[in-house]
Structure formats: structure tokens, C-alpha cells
Amino acid sequence: MSSILKEMQFIEYTDRKFEEPIAIIGLPDVGLVGAIATVHLTRELKLPEHGYAYYDLIPPVILLHGGELKSPIRIYANEKVITLISEIALPTQTILALSKKIVHWIMEKKGKYILMLSGLGVPNRMDIEEPKVYGVATNMEGKKLLQENGIEILQEGFIAGANALILRECIKNKIPAILLLSESFTEFPDPAAAASILKAFSKITGIQIDTKKLIEQAEEIRIKARELMRRTQRQLKAMRKIQESEVPLMYR
Questions:
Q1: How many other CB atoms are found less than 10 A from the CB of residue 91?
Q2: Helices H / strands E in the chain, number of each
Q3: Cα–Cα distance between 163 and 29 in angstroms, integer?
């Protein structure tokens, strides 16, 4: 095992027995789409907290929720669903270690596949009433699943940051993975894009997630997430995340 996998630890509270779980990853990203969607999903499914990530290079932050101290990067789970959320913007070195750890940990749990939720910044987002969701898959089964559920496969573009690292690690280790990308604002928290991506999530997993509260609380979410969005935006620029909406040079 590489040193980076030894240094990044997932501390689990219980020895839960998993049953080929799907793992949903929603880290701070474009429009905070994945983070907002994964937090909402976790609450709707009433998933218990299963553990947290421990790593020396995680920013020195401890959160308070209901008077309890919490790690900023936490794992929630039942026997069939695992979610991983981060309530802070992550530096590049932390993202590298976390991405590798996620994939290898899910392999240990005999996960069915990894599902990432993210945003795809579009310049005309203000004119879009219901954001469209695109998909990327690491194997033919995943592509078929997307097509069967009417989710268009993204044909050209860049994927950067944590999602790219997770996909790369999944390809290397032959782990099925799907990335869902919802059209979103680039620089503002986008709960509506999170609602769209959860509808696509429900289609491909069969797990129904009610997004009514998400839409009703959209303004409150935008206000609460402003500082995280600012910090995330700085990190995205460092990783050239904005390039995802561009076409690679090879295809110009």
C-alpha cells in the first residue's frame, strides 16, 4: 500500500456489514452542486454518520453541529448506500490523497459502483429553467445505464479536480464509476442544479429522493454556502476546473 493511502485514514465508528453498496461522492465543486445534492440526499435517506477522514494535510478546521464536534469530511452509510461529504474547500494535496483513499476503501467494502455528483458551469445558466444533466461512465455498463435513463453522455470536454482523480483511479483499478454533471452557475451555489442532478440520480439508482425541500430552501442554502463557494472558487481556479466547459485541443 502506498504511503499516501496509509496517511489518509477513514476512521469508522462501527463495523458495519455492507451489501454491495453504491458510494455517492459530492465534494465542493462548480456551483457546489455535488456538495448540496449529497447533503440533501444524506438527510432524505436519514443515513447515520459512519465515520470521517483523518489526514494531516486536511485544513485545521473542526465544525460544530448541534453542539457536537464534527470532522469537515464525513462518511454516512447504511448497508447499501454510502455518502461522503466535505464542508470545506480542499487543497490539492488533500484531494489527491482523498481520491485514492475513496476508491480503495470502496473496493474493500465490495462496492457496486462509485457515483459522483458535480456541476458543469455554463455561461447562459440564468436563461435555463431546468438544468440539463450529462453523464460520464468508466465502462460500457455505466454508459448503458445512462442511456437507458435518458441521460446524455458528455462527448467532449475536460474533467478536473477530485472527479478526474477518482475517475482515473477507478479506471486503473477497474472499478465501475459514473459522474453526473448538471448545468450550473460557475461562481454561485446552485440548489436548482442540485435538484436536477438528484432527479437523474433517482432514475439510475431507483432510490427516490424528494427535492421539494431543496427547492423551498434554495435561498437559505445560497446564503449559507456563500463563503464555501468563495473558497471553492479559488481552489477551482488553481486546478483549472473551469476548463470542463471547453473542448480539448485535439477536437478543435
A1: 13
A2: 9, 11
A3: 9
Q: Which among 80, 100, 73 is positioned nearest to 23, based on CA atoms?
A: 80
pLDDT, tens digit, for every residue of 51-80? 999 998 877 778 787 888 888 899 999 999
The grid cell for 224 is: 449559507
Cα angle for residues 191, 192, 196 (degrees, 5° grid): 115
Among all chains, which residue has been given the C-alpha cell 476508491?
A: 103
- Alpha helical stretches, state H, 109-160: 140-148
Question: Which residue segments constitute the domains of the chain, with CATH numbers given?
Answer: 3-241 (3.40.50.10900)
| 71-to-28, 53, 220 alpha-carbon distances in Å | 15, 7, 23
- What is the SS3 assignment for 228? helix
Question: How distant, in Å, are the alpha carbons of 1, 99, 188, 244 from that of 10?
Answer: 15, 12, 30, 30
Model-level pTM? 0.86
- Longest distance between any two alpha carbons in the chain, whole Å: 54
| 223-243: pLDDT as tens digits | 676 666 666 666 666 555 444
